[in-house]
């Protein structure tokens, strides 16, 4: 087995990004199994990827774990502005983290997340937020290992 490389994608035309579609779909199945109530819409992974590409490196950062030519994981984040009544500061939003089952527990998540957090700091964010599904056994402890603390509890009513 070759070594896994951790890379930031800066070109929206990078063909490796297309490999994210089945990974994103699997991520949503995992999140649903651990408590996420909303379901990914048909074609939702492509819509998500199109949005990432549109703001890549301006508002979005995509970090991949690549083994040879195969993407085995990704994490991404975005930057938004807090409302003016909260100071209007730049806020990082760590949106997704996924590693293929065959590559878990080897430090891939940590290496990708470290690179994403460096980008947030370089962009001058004043805080970073993330959401995790309620029943995933490692999501909260992993975020807490970076210093994240619970601020909100998100409730949803499906109609």
Instruction: Report how far apart the termini are.
Output: 47 Å
Task: State the shape.
Answer: globular
Oligomer: single chain
Helix and strand pattern: EHHEEEHEH
Largest sheet: 5 strands, mixed
The number of helices is: 4
Which architecture per CATH?
Answer: 3-Layer(aba) Sandwich
- CATH C-level: Alpha Beta
Structure class: alpha+beta
Q: What's the alpha carbon Rg, rounded to whole Å? A: 16 Å
Stretches with pLDDT under 50, minimum 5 residues: none
Q: Please, what is the average pLDDT?
A: 93
Placed side by side, the strands forming the largest sheet appear as 1-2-3-4-5
Q: Strand tally, please?
A: 5
Output the CATH topology.
Aminopeptidase
Number of domains: 1
Descriptive labels:
Aminopeptidase, single chain, alpha+beta, 159 residues
């Amino acid at each position: 087995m070759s070594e896994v490389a951790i890379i930031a994608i800066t070109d929206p035309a990078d063909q490796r990004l297309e490999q994210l579609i089945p990974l994103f779909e699997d991520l949503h199945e995992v999140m649903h199994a651990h408590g996420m109530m909303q379901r990914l819409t048909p074609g939702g992974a492509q819509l998500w990827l199109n949005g990432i590409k549109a703001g890549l490196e301006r508002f979005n950062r995509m970090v991949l774990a690549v083994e040879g030519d195969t993407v085995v994981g990704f994490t991404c984040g975005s930057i938004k502005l807090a409302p003016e009544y909260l100071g209007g500061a730049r806020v990082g939003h760590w949106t997704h983290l996924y590693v293929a089952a065959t590559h878990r527990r080897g430090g891939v998540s940590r290496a990708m997340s470290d690179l994403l957090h460096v980008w947030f700091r370089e962009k001058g964010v004043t805080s970073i937020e993330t959401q995790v599904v309620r029943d995933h056994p490692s999501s909260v402890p992993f975020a807490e290992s970076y210093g994240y603390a619970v601020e909100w509890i998100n409730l949803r009513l499906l109609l």
